[in-house]
Amino acid sequence: MPPIFIGTRGSALALAQANFIAAACRAAFPALPFELQIIKTTGDKLQTASLAQGDLPKGLFTKELEVALLDGRVDLCVHSLKDLPTELPAGLVLGATPPREDVRDVLFTRDPGHLRSAGVKDRRGFGPHVHLRDLPADAVIATSSTRRRAQLLAARADLRTVEIRGNVATRLHKLARQPELDATLLAYAGLRRLGYTVTPEGRITGTDLPPGLFATVMELDTMLPCVGQAAIGIEIRGDDARIADVCARLNHADTLACVTAERAFLAAMGGGCQAPVAAHATVSGAELQLRAVSFLRGCQRAELRGPRDQPIALGQQMAECLR
Fold it and tell me: Is 83 a catalytic residue?
């Protein structure tokens, strides 16, 4: 029996997510062989490009995977759903979304006690459980996300932001070593999937980490996530009934309803994954609750509720409120 090929990027996070899906597939279908197929995307090749640029191509981290899916070289693709454009190529569909991880962001800063003990005088640090309100004026926060930058400056107009690229360990090492940086933000879901843990004391544990950092999980009232954050999207061919059956065993209905509302909002706003908008939906009984913020024309916020079985209508209604 030929294997079922799972397309994925080659980054550590992408492989962690793809291996998670492969393990779920093998558990649900022990008689079927599943194999990973690693494919390099345009986004993987543009390691120095600013992700905040408005002229970057759509599907930066997905296009080459979708070409392989359409060509039949792979049978399904595993994406960070936040990277998957809301408009998919003809013939492709979102087949499943497994249970979502924690959607919050984590604020990283340096530990002043560690700096003192190491004799480091050219960098500043802050205590554990630091919040945005605790940072001094002109503190520099490194982020490549327009969504994070807009919300940071909306909360604290006296902060400064700069670009940063690289994987989790690279970004944290930059924070630890570069005096011009005071903090950075990372998605909690990615950290957890890579095996990192934020302790109750505000420390970060895991492999290949610099010493002397504090981590604070940010609340959603301060930092709403980007559309689809913390969700994995499985993309398949629309006419592939066999793989659709596989996806049916992997899908989490509440997650799919939530991200469908969020993606409908983003599509109606006319934005991509780097648009300065954020949204988060949750299920409450038979209802969906959707919170969103847009910085396309000033700062506009709204919260709406709607039937759980009408997520697209809810997302579109939110866009009408914020356009």
Answer: yes
